[in-house]
Amino acid sequence: MEHFYVVRFNKWKRWLIVFIFALFTATFLWFESEGALSVFSEDEPVALTKGNASESNIALTFNISWGEDKVHAILKQLDQKQVQATFFVSGEWAERHPEILEKITEAEHEVGMLGYRYENYLDQEIDQVRDDLLHAKEVFGKIGYKDIEMLRPPSGKFNKEIIELAEQLGFTVIHWNVNPSDWKNPGTKKIENTVMKQTSNGDIILMHASDSVKQTADSLKTILPGLKNKGFQFVTISELVNQAHAKSKIVE
Q1: Are 9 and 17 in contact (CB under 8 A)?
Q2: How far, in Å, CA of 5 to CA of 216, rounded?
Q3: What's the pTM value of the predicted model, to 2 decimals?
Q4: CA 108 to chain centre
Q5: Predicted local confidence at residue 46, as pLDDT
Q6: Residues 240/241/245/247 CA torsion (nearest 10 deg)
Q7: In Å, what is the CA distance from 10 to each residue of 14, 15, 20, 22, 75?
Q8: C-alpha pair distances (Å), 85 with each of 40, 63, 189
Q9: Pure H helices in 81-215
Q10: What integer pLDDT is reported at residue 19 of this predicted model?
Q11: Where are the transmembrane segments (predicted)?
Q12: What parts of the chain have a pLDDT lower than 70?
């Protein structure tokens, strides 16, 4: 037998609970733009976390903040399977490895930034975040990348204030919604299964190309053709963003 417990409240307490719940919900609402998910409302700065759910396009993204070895095997897999990806790199890494960054762009992959130093923005004052972004912008400009407009905050940590700052500086904040945690090296099969099972139309997949990853390149041997066989088409983040312009509605 099922038992249901009913707690009785005074009228004013019930209204108080309703108000608190509504406030909490409003704070964490996600909005959908023709299937495109973004954080916060259409009247406020947003961070894109998913493209158009009615289209079969998906975006494969890689973060790089240190190392120079593992990225080459990943680029080889992308080239062999003829897949375009978007690489988010820190300014500090780009400054140290401009030749690898050039190799990425020569292969017609897209480049976004992770700021300059790969340090959690939520642990910093907003002026420190501004300085980091401006310095990153300056560094990328000096090595020939003046038109970078996409930002992925370090570790994917951000709030409304950081998104507002990013937009003021000309950046679009890019998040993700499929994350196999490949940097933890959980096993090639686990990485493959997570991506293959969770990916749907419009998704942004987060992977890594720093030297911490030991299984990512091998997992791509299965992931890339596997997702293509499911009917998905790999596009850059810019292409995904261009499909995400529509009137927003709340995702329930």
Answers
A1: yes
A2: 50
A3: 0.82
A4: 19
A5: 82
A6: 90
A7: 6, 9, 16, 19, 63
A8: 26, 11, 21
A9: 91-96, 98-106, 126-142, 160-168, 188-198
A10: 47
A11: 12-31
A12: 1-45, 244-252
Q: What is the pLDDT of residue 172?
A: 95
Percent of the chain with pLDDT over 70: 79
Under a CB-based contact definition with an 8 Å cutoff, are residues 195 and 223 in contact?
A: yes
Cβ neighbours around 141 below 10 Å, total? 12
- CA dihedral (210, 211, 213, 217) positive or negative: positive
Which pairs from 35-44 meet CB under 8 Å and 24+ separation? 35/201, 35/202, 36/202, 36/243, 36/244, 36/246, 37/177, 37/251, 38/244, 38/248, 39/163, 39/175, 40/160, 40/163, 41/248, 42/247, 42/248, 44/160, 44/163, 44/164
Exposed e or buried b for every residue in 97-117, given b needs 16+ CB within 10 A? Answer: beebbeebeeeebbbbbbbbb
- pLDDT at residue 199, as a whole number: 98
The helix or strand, by DSSP H or E, that contains position 229, with its residue range, turns out to be: helix 216-229
The pair of structure tokens assigned to 222 is 């299965």
